[in-house]
Amino acid sequence: MVKLEWQNALFKATQNKVKLIPVKLDDCLMPAILLQTLYIDVFGKGLEFGLRQIIDVINNKNTHTAGEQTYENVRGYILKTPQEKEINIEIRAETYVEPMSKYLLLVENLENEVEGKCTNQVLIQQRFLKDVNVADNYKCNGIYFEVVRPTTPGFPIRFTLKSMTEEPLKFKGIMRGISEHIIRPVPIIVE
Q1: Between residues 67 and 190, which one has the greater pLDDT?
Q2: DSSP state, 111?
């Protein structure tokens, strides 16, 4: 029923009968059509920022700036094993094909402490990278995988990360290559 309700409200908004401003409260996939308009991202930006945006909208002050909100087609799904020394990762394209499958699994472990494998692909390039600039003032190690096939809906790419010592696995996230010199974080859902 919720889908029918927002679709009906969107239709009425195109006729200037109502004002529709979606509010994102959790790590859900926003329907692509709703990403073309302003939405308030309480989950990603925080409650204080979201409330400020709601007040601005009520007061007819549009605080939306282009490029601020984007749709992310690729998601990482994490399956933890009972031991904290291993995790299984599944990277999925949710809506459309991603032609390049270049992923960086971020860890704070050293190269001799961790092993990473792509479990459902044969043709891959893999290497350990030290001190990757992930964010301002934060560097992290990572295992880089370049899979020789696109990431497509219905055909995920699976990885396993395992600690090879008594040290626990210090998994920090997933990034993907979107161009020759740009990497971007991949949203993660823990199942």
Answers
A1: 190
A2: G
| Closest to 115 measured CA to CA, from 126, 100, 103, 99 | 126
Sheet with 188-190, side-by-side order of all strands: 114-118, 157-163, 86-93, 74-80, 188-190
Domains of the chain, with CATH numbers? Answer: 2-58 (no CATH), 74-190 (2.60.40)
What's the pLDDT tens digit per position in 60-95? 776 555 444 466 789 999 986 666 789 999 999 988
In Å, how far are 10, 68, 145, 146, 187 from 58, measured between CA atoms? 18, 20, 46, 47, 30
Instruction: Convert the pLDDT of each residue in 8-29 to its tens digit.
Output: 888 888 888 887 778 888 777 7
In sequence order, which residues have a C-beta less than 8 Å from that of residue 163 and are 6 or more positions away? 85, 86, 109, 113, 114, 169
What are 1's two structure tokens? Answer: 């029923």
Q: The tokens of 141 are what?
A: 């190690």
